[in-house]
């Protein structure tokens, strides 16, 4: 969910008075040649309310009396409109906005992209689109509301809106209630088949080729939804709806509470790798962005995107009963950040909101691994308890301070320093491992205070993991293989004192050759979110690929 | 083993010469190699044999027994009170695996590393026939017993799993090096 535009506008506006949008009951008629939207809103407070410019010509009344709704004539022309609410407007009065006309749907804020679709086979209105608004947004700041969306659509179209399952009204329209306060609403009407799972998920089928990928999204939901509900609490909607969109939108997926918008192109074969992880990530936004959301937009990237990404791999691994599934996802995120983030361009996670270049690398990829780090510090049970407590705080209650409070309450640990070093400074840990006899010394050289899990394996394959090691590790005589942070609980690199000694026994032997060869084929992916099974430890010649050359490089 | 038996016969002859023992014979010491108790039969094992050479010298061989199909194998031979050199892997190992390694560690030179690996897990495992995998030449630092140990023996499959492997070293008794 991208709030860049909202942020920009908010900074430019000074509220004349406190305004609070309490509820909106929105009727959307998508069945004709024009878009007809009627918004009945209840607002507490008066003054000039900046909203995202509506999708078509509109009129406004307060309890039937006309009030002004004017286009911004300055910097935000075409993006913002100003609604004049008389001083003393109360929640007992009804603000009615009627939007009537055929929307152009060309994005006013993102050239080349769509802000909506309005074709005979698909009609879609999205959240927070400047110039394509269809409900009231308070651009003074985040202002979630409840209400309903009632839709009349072209016959035969499948319709998704709101949060709850549709109720058929007396006049044959579909009403979708909005019970959890939100600013993110969508309505989509499309001529598609629908897959309905035996559980709590459904999906539109954008094409025959897209049927199998959408089925996999539904199946993924069936697998991970119980994990999310176990960790964070019940999803307060009847079911999860995957909604394919054919328009040119600037996202592959957008997760609202219970509703996930998916670009049709995600079902194309070249994006096959995205199906499970994309479904899991976007579904996680039902909690991170839906059930709770960031009070400070500057922290929103980390608190919503990084949390959704952490949640996705946690749930995918748990559902598969396979730690390797989760660890591969965490490694993928760590490696993508480490290999793609130019050190000179790196920024702290909490500074990434203002840096479009670094935002994705730092927020999604590093940020989600930092959450894995915090989980390792406090323990998974305490970490999940803290996250559940954060969700319970509700919309606009999520903050880094709240995260610290809940983690410390759940674990009894002081975590201010750990949070500060990972969220307020750029970079990653750099571990160097020296061997003296049967003692390993792990040193961190980038100034991070870390504790490192170490897995030690004997020749029969039995292993033990020692957690929270900050310095020396004593090995037993029959220990043969040491793995530093084997589950990628840190954004880090690991460097042995002896080049090629990837088993960390102080010398290069055939075990090192085997360890490298077992990773043959790993490579730095060229595409984001592709798992290249790459670990730089084993890429001895540093060419981005683990292959025979690296085995040869290890040979004395 | 036939070589060893023949050598032991010569040692016995040497001892029988009594006061006229040739140069290099140490009265009261029976040069030879006593293998450690053999690993239980019926499972993967690495075993050691030795062939005595000139005074103070021996050639040590590490052989595979029932290793089966593997992706890689790694082991060390350590020798107390002796110096190792001329470490080599056998043709059997080199033919089975794509890369092999045989090296004597610098420093005390009493630890030799051996083994090898296939290069791509996608190619799966390869069978290692029973027989010699590696050899190394040994020179005694002084007369007496030399303990030979196979250490850090690791056998891996292409799926990354470990194959438990039994090992047997032995005790080598040599005359002093000339």
Explain the overall architecture.
The complex is a heterodimer of chains A (556) and B (178). With 556 residues, chain A is α+β, with helices and mostly antiparallel strands. Chain A has 4 domains: 1-190, Immunoglobulin-like, CATH 2.60.40; 192-286, Zincin-like (2-Layer Sandwich); 297-423, Neutral Protease Domain 2 (Neutral Protease, domain 2, Orthogonal Bundle); 429-554, no CATH class. Chain A is 28% helix and 27% strand. Chain A contains 11 helices and 27 strands. Chain A has helices spanning 4-12, 211-232, 275-284, 297-320, 323-340, 356-378, 380-393, 400-411, 416-423, 510-518, 548-554, and strands spanning 20-29, 35-44, 47-52, 58-62, 65-67, 69-71, 80-85, 95-101, 116-118, 122-125, 145-152, 158-161, 167-168, 174-182, 187-190, 193-196, 201-205, 240-245, 253-255, 259-263, 429-436, 439-444, 452-458, 463-469, 472-474, 479-484, 492-496. An 8-stranded mixed β-sheet of chain A has the order 5-4-8-2-1-11-14-13, with no helix packed on it. In chain A, strand 21 and strand 22 (439-444) form a beta hairpin. In chain A, helix 4 runs antiparallel to helix 5 (323-340) and helix 10 (510-518) packs antiparallel against helix 11. The radius of gyration of chain A is 26 Å and the shape is elongated. Chain B has 178 residues and is mainly beta. Chain B has one domain (2-174): Immunoglobulin-like. Chain B is built from 2 helices and 13 strands, in the order H-E-E-E-E-E-E-H-E-E-E-E-E-E-E. Chain B has a 6-stranded antiparallel β-sheet with strand order 1-13-11-5-8-7. The radius of gyration of chain B is 18 Å and the shape is elongated. The A-B interface holds A 457, 459-461, 477-478, 480-481, 505, 507, 509-511, 513-514, 517-518, 520-521, 547-548, 551-552, 555-556 and B 71-76, 98-101, 103, 105, 113-122, 151-156, 158, 160-165.
């Amino acid at each position: 969910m991208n709030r860049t535009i909202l942020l920009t506008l908010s900074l430019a506006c000074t509220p004349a008075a406190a305004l609070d949008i309490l509820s909106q009951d929105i009727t959307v008629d998508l069945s004709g040649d024009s878009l007809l939207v009627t918004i009945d809103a209840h607002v507490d407070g008066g003054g000039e309310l900046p909203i995202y410019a509506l999708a078509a010509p509109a009129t406004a009344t307060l309890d039937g009396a006309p009030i002004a709704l004017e286009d911004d004539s300055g910097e935000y022309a075409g993006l913002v409109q100003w609604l004049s609410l008389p001083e003393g407007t109360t929640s007992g009065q009804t603000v009615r906005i009627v939007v009537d006309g055929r929307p152009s749907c060309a994005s006013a804020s993102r050239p080349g992209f769509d802000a909506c679709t309005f074709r005979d086979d698909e009609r879609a209105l999205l959240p927070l689109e400047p110039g394509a608004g269809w409900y009231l947004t308070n651009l003074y700041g985040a202002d979630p509301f409840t209400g309903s969306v009632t839709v009349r659509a072209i016959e035969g179209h499948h319709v998704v809106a709101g949060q709850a399952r549709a109720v058929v009204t007396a006049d044959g329209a579909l009403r979708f209630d909005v019970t959890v306060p939100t600013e993110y609403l969508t309505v989509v009407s499309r001529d598609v088949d629908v897959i309905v799972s035996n559980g709590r998920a459904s999906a539109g089928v954008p094409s025959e080729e897209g049927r199998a990928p959408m089925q996999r999204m539904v199946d993924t939901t069936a697998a991970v939804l119980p994990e999310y509900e176990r960790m964070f609490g019940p999803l307060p909607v009847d079911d999860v709806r995957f909604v394919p969109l054919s328009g040119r939108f600037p996202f592959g997926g957008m997760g609202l509470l219970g509703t996930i918008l998916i670009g049709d192109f995600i079902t194309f074969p070249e994006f096959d790798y995205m199906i499970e992880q994309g479904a899991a990530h976007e579904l996680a936004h039902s909690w991170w962005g839906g059930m709770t959301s960031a009070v400070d937009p500057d922290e929103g990237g980390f608190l919503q995107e990084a949390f959704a990404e952490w949640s996705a791999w946690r749930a995918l691994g748990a559902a598969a009963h396979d730690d390797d599934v989760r660890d591969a996802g965490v490694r993928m995120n760590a490696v993508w950040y480490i290999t793609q983030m130019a050190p000179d361009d790196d920024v702290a996670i909490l500074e990434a909101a203002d840096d479009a270049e670094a935002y994705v690398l730092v927020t999604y990829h590093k940020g989600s691994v930092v959450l894995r780090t915090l989980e390792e510090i406090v323990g998974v049970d305490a970490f999940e308890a803290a996250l559940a407590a954060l969700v319970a705080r509700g919309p606009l209650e999520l903050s880094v301070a709240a995260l610290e409070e809940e983690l410390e309450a759940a674990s009894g640990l002081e975590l201010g320093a750990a949070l500060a070093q990972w969220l307020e400074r750029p970079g990653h840990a750099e571990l160097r491992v020296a061997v003296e006899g049967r003692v390993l010394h792990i040193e961190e050289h980038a100034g991070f205070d870390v504790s490192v899990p170490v897995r030690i394996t004997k020749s029969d394959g039995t292993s033990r993991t020692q957690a929270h090691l900050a310095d020396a590790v004593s090995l037993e005589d029959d220990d043969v293989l040491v793995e530093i942070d084997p589950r990628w609980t840190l954004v880090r690199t690991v460097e042995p004192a002896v080049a090629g000694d990837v088993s960390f026994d102080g010398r290069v032997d055939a075990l090192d050759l085997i360890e490298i060869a077992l990773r043959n084929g790993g490579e730095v992916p060229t595409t984001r979110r592709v798992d290249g099974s790459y670990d730089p430890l084993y890429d001895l010649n540093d060419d981005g690929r683990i292959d025979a050359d690296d085995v040869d490089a290890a040979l004395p | 083993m036939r070589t060893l038996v023949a050598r032991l016969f010569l040692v016995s002859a040497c001892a029988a010469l009594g006061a006229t023992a040739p140069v290099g014979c140490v009265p009261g010491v029976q040069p030879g190699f006593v293998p450690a108790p053999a690993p239980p039969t019926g499972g993967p094992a690495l075993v050691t044999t030795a062939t005595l050479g000139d005074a103070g010298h021996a050639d040590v061989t590490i052989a595979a027994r029932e290793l089966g199909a593997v992706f890689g194998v790694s082991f060390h031979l350590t020798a107390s009170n002796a110096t190792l050199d001329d470490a080599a892997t056998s043709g059997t190992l080199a033919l089975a695996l794509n890369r092999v390694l045989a090296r004597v560690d610098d420093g005390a030179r009493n630890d030799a590393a051996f083994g090898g690996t296939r290069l791509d897990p996608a190619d799966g495992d390869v069978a290692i026939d029973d027989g010699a995998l590696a050899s190394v030449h040994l020179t005694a630092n002084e007369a007496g017993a030399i303990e030979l140990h196979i250490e850090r023996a690791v056998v891996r499959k292409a799926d990354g799993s470990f194959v438990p492997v039994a090992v047997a070293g032995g005790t080598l008794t040599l005359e002093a090096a000339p």
